Structure formats: C-alpha cells, structure tokens
Amino acid sequence: MVTARPGPVLRTHVSGYAGLRVDAARPLKGRAVATCGVTLFIDFAASVRLVTTPAADPPLRVQTSHVTGLHDGPVLFEQHSHHRGMAVELTPLGAHVLFGVPMRELANTTVDLTDLLGRRTEQLTERLRQAPDWATRFALLDHLLPAWFADGPEPAPAVLRAWRRLRETSGAISVGGLAEEVGVTRRYLELRFDEQIGLPPKTMARIVRFERAARLLTGSAGRPLSRIADTCGYADQAHFNRDFRRLAGCTPTAFRAEHAAANTATVHPEAEAGHPSHSFNTRERRNP
Predict the structure, then answer these.
(1) Which element (helix H / strand E) includes 178?
(2) Among residues 26, 186, 250, 275, which one has the fewest Cβ atoms lying within 10 Å of its Cβ?
(3) Residue 154 burial (10 A CB sphere; 0-12, 13-18, 19+)
(4) pLDDT class for 266, splitting at 50, 70, 90?
C-alpha cells in the first residue's frame, strides 16, 4: 500500500489516496470499521470482491470500480488473492458534490462507479492503469478531480457548518444543540443530512466519537481503556465496549491488538522516490 495526501485545493473534499497491490497465496478476508469517509475504488484488474455491509446479506459480488458509502457497522470483505487498484477517500459532502446523488442511496452499500460517473469511469481507470508509477497516478487525480468537483452541487450552508462542528467537538454535541448552533430546526438538519451526508446526525456524531477513540487506542498502546472512554465522552466502559462492537465488530482490546498486528512497516522504493507534492506512507497490511 502506498498512500498520499491530495493537493491543497482538494482537501475539503478528499481525505487521501492509496495505491494497492496484493499478491497473496489465497483470498484475503478482512473487516473495515465504520468511518466518516466514502471510499471510491478504481479497479485495475477486475478482481472479484465479496462485500457484506450492514444492509447487504447475502454479500454483494463486486468485480469493477465501485463506491462504498458511509456505514453504521463493520463491512466484511473477501478479496481475490491478486489485486490492483487505487482508493480515493472522500468526505461525505465531497462524495455528494462529486456524484450529485442523495447520499442515503450510498449508505450501507457498495455501488458500481459507472452508475455514478458514467463514461468518465472507464476513461479514468484506463489513464490511471497506464500511468508508470503511483506518484504519476496521484498527480493525475490532483489534476482531474478539481474540475469534477466544480461541476457538482453546493452543500447546504447549515449542513457544512454542522459537519464542521461535529468534527470540532469530536461528536460531543447533541443533535438539538447542533441544530440550534447552525440556526435550523432539528428536522431540517436530519433531512439535509439524509440527502447530503447519508446517515443521521446522531449516528454521525457516534461515528466521529468512535474515530477519535480508535485513534487514541492505536496511537498510545499503554493508555488505559477507561481513560480513553472518559476522554471521548462515553458514559462508562460498558458504553465504550457497546459502541465498538456496533461500529467495529470487536471490542476495544481486540481492535488495538489487530491494529498492532496489521501495521508492520515495510520499505517500498516508490516511497523514497515519490512525487514531492505528496507525503507517502507504505505498509504491508496482513489484516486490513
């Protein structure tokens, strides 16, 4: 995996890029936890991927470039053993601007990218596939995406302010208080979140808080779980454990252990010779 930050003009809508290459002895199984991002995946190899989201049972069979929307529970996947492609991590509002569809249609599911971007999907995939290295691919995304975002709908000002406040407070604000701060009714805020974010404000506050707790768990192995729970505003350890099971599919202790096992750093030659406008990070992830 080779990752990079997008250019400054894109950072309101794009959280990051990743280039992925997998060569394994057998299909890979993994679990992705709930996050505040919408993932656009550009598939170079048309490899088979089985995806089980909170709303998908039996699993979806994906064999093309696709988008996985916000989800309020863990996403399970089984990936073909040989895999090539790129991921673009979008903010929820960035995804709404880029795709121009009600974000509730993408929540808790995976959608063929062609259904959202039409002919641009094939053109983008081919240009990225033919590029000589990851740095060139990241630079190409920096070049193409600003114009695509410029053609999209503008987020409602109240939703934009509310989303920023959720991030600033790490989810520690009630929906009523959030609506009052941005000057709209609670009902208005819920309807606009449904359209432009994809999940309700209360759910997004829970996910934002969970993301903070996950960062603290993985960034400070020695910090007691009770202290992290208190710092992030959980009522008690039981509340902390319940939210983790709901959003990550495991306990905080198991999450910390899995993260430690999955992040064995490796040296990749492109990481040292990367494009100067990008910050690269390369990892071999045994359990994504």
Answers:
(1) helix 175-182
(2) 26
(3) exposed
(4) very low
Q: How far is CA 18 from CA 86, 88, 109, 210, 249, in A?
A: 6, 7, 21, 23, 24
Q: What is the pTM of this model?
A: 0.85
Beta strands in 38-104 (DSSP E): 38-43, 49-52, 60-62, 66-68, 75-79, 82-90
Q: pLDDT tens digit string along 127-149?
A: 999 999 999 999 999 999 999 99
Run of H or E residues at 269: helix 269-272
| Residue 138 near residue 4, CB atoms below 8 Å | yes
**Cβ atoms of residues 189 and 195 within 8 Å:** no
Q: Which two tokens stand for residue 221?
A: 């192995």
Structure tokens at 162: 């509310």
Q: What is the pLDDT of residue 277?
A: 36
Return all residues near 238 (Cβ < 8 A) that are at least 6 apart.
none
